[in-house]
Write a structure and sequence with these properties.
It is a single chain. 37% of the residues lie in helices and 11% in strands. By secondary structure, the chain is α/β, with parallel strands linked by helices. Strands 1, 2, 3, 9 and 10 form a five-stranded parallel β-sheet that branches. The chain has a three-stranded parallel β-sheet with strand order 4-5-8, sandwiched between helices. It has a two-stranded antiparallel sheet with strand order 6-7. It is globular, with a radius of gyration of 19 Å. The structure holds zinc ion. Zinc ion (ZN) binds next to loops.
């Protein structure tokens, strides 16, 4: 039995309501399978805990990667999703959940007013998501991080404490570099498998310190344990209602980092520019995406998860 399977079945049983809801739905595949879920209560905001969280708590964090959508080499397609920032602010404000953003250095330099809008309207917590989001990996990692830190410092006046690599792409040496540069945590690792991008099927699903670091905490992105499908908006869109229903009963780690991008929620001309099959994948269930997000966050709350920020999770696990 794997380490992951052994650590399953933690003391908290799935909430009875979640089980009943899940049982009453018959999962079907198809674009029409995702009907609105009017009965769910909104998630409870819980950014500032009234007691310290610890590793026994079930903690969930909604994170957004603030970046250009697909980095087309065409200025007419630059950061088109930012046009929807007002809608996104209204959505998150209505849900009342704390938001943590990992922001790309170049985005910070080009759209500081958008970053400020997120911060002032939602009290968003910010960390760094690379400087240029280069998915070719043909760059010096340390220089990339340092440039990102400069952009972050110029805007916020402080150093970032958390880092997220592009497309989950970080190697063991990267952890060492981040620690040396003063980062407290990283949240890049999908303990999952994406052909040609990463294979982390044996990576821990709970926060851990990588062997190449001495104190840096890796807070991996959430996955359904066992099948190891990420608890990320893009996957819920792709698999539709069956996966959202499964979230009500699936084996989950105690820490669930739920990731979303603006392009997972809002359609722009960039979607039409994608090549198939990615174009089809990204458009699938796009019109229902905000409803899917709302339902999934409610499901996590009904399963006993406290919604907090990345710093909230770090405080529960770090410096121990
Ligand atoms: Zn990204």
């Amino acid at each position: 039995m794997s380490k992951d399977a052994q650590s399953g079945g933690h003391a908290h049983p799935p909430n009875a309501r979640a089980e009943a809801e899940s049982a009453s739905r018959s999962p079907t595949i198809g674009d029409d399978a995702f009907a609105p879920e009017p009965q769910l209560e909104p998630p409870t905001a819980r950014g500032e805990p009234d007691r310290p969280f610890g590793p026994d708590d079930r903690l969930a964090c909604l994170t957004i990667d603030l970046e250009d959508d697909w980095y087309f080499d065409d200025p007419r397609y630059d950061h088109l999703t930012l046009e929807y920032l007002d809608d996104f602010v209204e959505l998150i404000d209505g849900l009342g959940v704390p938001l943590t953003a990992f922001v790309v250095g170049k985005t910070l330099e080009a759209y500081p007013e958008k970053v400020e809008q997120l911060r002032s309207a939602l009290g968003t917590e910010f960390h760094l998501h690379t400087y240029q989001h280069d998915v070719s990996n043909e760059f010096d990692f340390e220089e990339e991080v340092r440039r990102g830190m400069r952009a972050y410092r110029n805007h916020f006046g402080t150093d970032p404490v958390g880092y997220r690599a592009q497309q989950g792409n970080i190697d063991p040496d990267g952890f060492r570099v981040l620690e040396r540069l003063g980062f407290k945590f990283d949240s890049s690792v999908f303990p999952s498998y994406r052909p040609g991008v990463y294979n982390n099927l044996t990576a821990p699903t709970e926060p851990y310190t990588p062997s190449t670091a001495s104190s840096l905490l890796e807070i991996p992105l959430g996955v359904h344990r066992g099948i190891r499908i990420p608890v990320s908006q893009s996957y819920f869109k792709l698999f539709g209602r069956p996966l959202s229903s499964y979230l009500g009963v699936s084996p989950l780690p105690n820490v669930v980092v739920y990731n979303v991008h603006l392009q997972d929620l809002y359609r722009t001309a960039s979607h039409d520019k994608l090549a198939a099959p990615k174009r089809w994948i990204m458009k699938r269930n796009l019109e229902r995406s905000t409803a899917i997000l709302e339902r999934n966050l409610s499901t996590l709350v009904s399963r006993g998860y406290e919604l907090t920020t990345m710093n909230g999770i770090y405080d529960a696990y770090g410096d121990r």
